[in-house]
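Project channel, design review

CF: Before we commit to the Sphingobacterium thermophilum constructs, I'd like one complete example in the thread so the newer folks can see what an input/output pair looks like. Taking Phosphodiester glycosidase family protein.
RD: sounds good, go ahead.
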Amino acid sequence: MKNITAFFLYLILPLTTYCQQLVSNNDSATFTNFSWQNEHIAKGVVWRSGHFNSLFNSKQFISILEIDLSKRNKKLGIVALPQQLEHTSTLARHAKALAAINGGFFHMKNGGAVNYIKVKGKVITYSKSKGTHANAFFAFDRKKTIITSDSVAATALPNVMLAGPLLLENNRTVSLADNAFNKNRHPRTGVGLAGNKLYLITVDGRNSMSQGFSLAEFTNIFRWLGCTDAMNLDGGGSTAMYIEGKGIVNHPSDNKKFDHQGERKVANIIYIKK
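CF: and here is what came back for Phosphodiester glycosidase family protein:
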């Protein structure tokens, strides 16, 4: 019996791998050939949005900010509250931002980030625990922007946000832990780098109109955009994208409706200055 079982596994496993690859290739083609709604919101900044009827066998709504760093690297910023919480849209408006997304993980009760954040050379919060997700740094100065697992390289820069998990590093897919946070579908927020292009991405979820991504699925999106480095940020009910003059353009899930009103208060954002 063991020999028969082993024989069938020998036959089935290659077929399973082939089917998974076929599905991945089909999804890649669906994503690449999709007719996005594109809008140039400023020099070097393009906003794309798309509602997929079937991506990873599910409905998905994706919002992408594509930023040309050769034109906008000096315009990146972080807003971080040391103890308070506020809506992404409110923080963005106070910063006079052109566009913004929610940032890293935070204390929902007491406010403030749970991980290291530095803004303009000043540390706003230190990591209060090791955490299971925070293994990636988004960091920048006026000349360069990086996504890395190297804390020394990251913290040498004046603007740093620790979050995660890391998804891509040096064009390699990073192995993810086998846990519910990574495997289950949720709304997601993330950042990726492809040469001189920075991608800020939100994916809506927890709704029949958009089911959200696992982190493996989210990683594929960054790969298909040509990113060599990418990381996850705080998602779930925190996921939000703001654009000046439009407000929140994705569909935050906290009000359990597929509209733009269900924004959750957060502790920090990544934004693009005017």
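RD: helpful, thanks. The chain has two domains: 1-33, 35-273.
CF: The two ends are 69 Å apart (CA to CA).
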